[in-house]
Hints:
The structure holds two protein chains of two kinds. Chain A is mostly helical. Chain A has 13 helices and no strands.
Amino acid sequence: MTPIQRDRGDAFHVLPSTFYVFPFLLRRALSALLLILLVSSSSLVLVRLAPGTGEGIGADPAIVAAERHRLGLDRPLLEQYGAWLVRTVRFDFGESLRFRRPVSSLIRENAPNTALLGATAMLLATLIGLPLGVLTGSRRSALASAAGGASIVFLSIPSLVLSLGLLLVAARTGWLPAGGLGVPAPDAGLLERGALTLRYLLLPSIALALPVAASIERLESRAMADALAEPCIVAALARGVPARRVVWRHALRLSLKPVLAIYGILVGSVLSGSFIVEQVMSWPGLGVLMFDALTARDLFLVAGCAATGAALLAVGILISDVALAAVDPRIEEPLL
Amino acid sequence: MTRRPLPALGVALLGLVALVAVAAPLVAPYDPGRQFGDFASAPPMRPHVIDDAGAWHLPFVYPIRLVTRLERRYDEDRATRVTLRWGRGGTLVSADEGTGPLLLLGADSLGRDVFSRLVRGSRLSLGVSVLATLCALVVGALVGAAAGFRGGTIDALAMNVADFVIVLPAIYVVLALRAVMPLVLSTSEVFWTLAAVMGLAGWPYPARGVRAVVAVERRMEYAEAARALGAGPWRILLRHVLPAAKGLLAVQATLLLPSFILAEATLSYVGLGFPEPTPSWGAMLQEAGRISSLVDAPWLLAPAAAIVISVLALHLTAGGRPTLERTVQAAPVNN
Lengths: 336, 335
């Protein structure tokens, strides 16, 4: 660390750092809960008010009325919401109207797939984007400008297009399965299961990761260029610290702050992209389930999916908040 | 850098795309709904200038003929040259009808010309995105101006709502808003619904930026001078303060437009956008999404290329900076 940086940091390290960590985590966890509650409540209300919810087409009115009564849809709206809230905080998400199964069991089948896809894509995007960004931001060479140009192009190829293209390549060559998620044999070992999942995971995660990688590359490139102009970096170079060490140790840490500051938004865009990739590549995830639930006006399944999606989002944001706090402890906390 | 070739290239591309969309009926050779029965899933006809003997000609195509209907196999008739006609019959390019249709980008499984549908589709796909962008900018500017000008509770409420929407995955916001509308709508209803839904999902981004600008500008001396001269709050806001946010709104437009083009494509792809047989880029990609059609007729991906070109043009125009970076720049650092 350069002296200038240490001067900045010292004032905040008078007390042991754990003194701050627990209240910080507690506040972030509370706002995550608030996010989940707001998202699931608003989606529940939206679908409840949508035309066609809880109505039968061509069905016997008596049966429809009996079903509405069983589901409690004939009670006052506020009472319905209260009942749903009470059940939800006990992790009872109700029953899917369409699949006639508990919402929680449907979510347990689909949510891990989305979490796996999203986490893999996020990891892949960071591993590709960050080093390339450091490269393009810290030096001027033909290679660096080629990488910068490539990321402008990849920034313009959305996951929808990329996944269709990869699907075509997979179907033509037969190298990788064209969509879906393979079911392993019941007697397959752990290694075998992992290898199978990996084969199916590869294309969707690439389709999801590349646009995000391009975003990260552009951001890191700019942040690195800004960081290298900081006085502390100039001072480090003047003291004779090797340029490579200055870039990868000193400037990297400085440049990570603006990048990590938008990691929360990136997690959101990965979830957005995951919806598209799941649809195109028939990946049995939360996006497919949510879409079916929305078009079928499957009230409780929509709310359950929204709550789970919000939870995934909240975990992603929490991780990026913690990473940001680790890089720069002086962060301002947003309300939500 | 004094010379900026990339933005210039972007503006040129953007102009080309806009020109094609505006002049669509003149560019498309056929009606987008017209079916050529014997040309289902026919491959693209490449324009040539050199024939097999090596002689040069004006641009021409070789006509194609169905060989086996079951396999949908087509053969080029290398003996006949069909010279392209320019500007005749009210369209930019056409061929003699006697030798069959001119299918520059092939045909879909119903025998409709992909090129004509692509060109006509650009009007819907780009039109709805532009309208949604205007919607988002107007609503965002109004909300942001109100929040920045009044401050206090209104400000806190509006900005918290905006932050909440920004944090959510954008596609799900659009999807949920669209899905709670009646599922089956006519083409013009879909047009207005999509524009409204996407505008509703997009307003927080410009709102945050406008709020930051207005909150600073309204305390400037020129605003006070206007008040001293007897201008009311509306006049100060609309005539004096809001013009300061013009540049920001322009930047926001290049940020919102690509995401709306993509949102339309996504919604139509999953069946909540423009319905068949309306040609829009997303609706056309629906057929490409079926593995069998995709493998047999990869030219169905033409709308995907059109999306990439439009988005790339917008990114280049904005100077090749990532959209997210501009979001962060537009948003106030400490609010």
